[in-house]
Write a structure and sequence with these properties.
By secondary structure, this protein is α+β, with helices and mostly antiparallel strands. It is 13% helix and 27% strand. Strands 1, 2, 3, 4, 5, 6 and 7 form a 7-stranded antiparallel sheet that branches. The longest helix has 17 residues. The chain is globular.
Length: 208
Amino acid sequence: MTDWCDFNDAQQQPSFDLIPKGTLARVRMTLKPGGFDDPAQGWTGGYATQSFETGSVYLAAEFVVLEGEYAKRKLWSNIGLHSPKGPAWGQMGRSFVRAVLNSARNVHPQDMSPQAAAARRIQGFHELDGIEFAARIDIEKDGRGELKNVIRNAVEPDHPDYARLMGLPPKNPGSGSTGAPAAATPPRTTPPVNPHPPAVPGKPAWAQ
């Protein structure tokens, strides 16, 4: 029975030291619904958030490190969808999501085959909620000037550490890394289950 007068047997609080800048890790991303939809933009399901202060629209993402020294550590970042200041923030968000899909679905960034193109399409933000991919952890200052860990880059299949991070067989020596077709071997984890089943049973929508 827990004694709320004696705390000698309480666990020590976990360390909140920053994860070193540049650390690579496999992570799971979940989205915190903000309730903002714009069907014309493809923003449905209530996943997007609009800032009352700036009018910007973004996805509030939480990342959990899945393995290694920093397993179970959580990080938070926003994925830009729209900014009243211009298109740059939204373009950065699109680039990030493209890299996340490449990483999660094992598609080389230079692969322009029909299969690769299909893998970079989603039916909605629900396909990003729970997706697992390899990431590079960074450090930046928050609004109060304090340092925090963030994720701004996904590690794609052309990175030398990608296979190790995703638990894939090592690449054959001399096989090269540019212009490769979409890999036939999927990463250890798969994208979240689509609530709208694809036409072919057992096949994800992007692989149709």
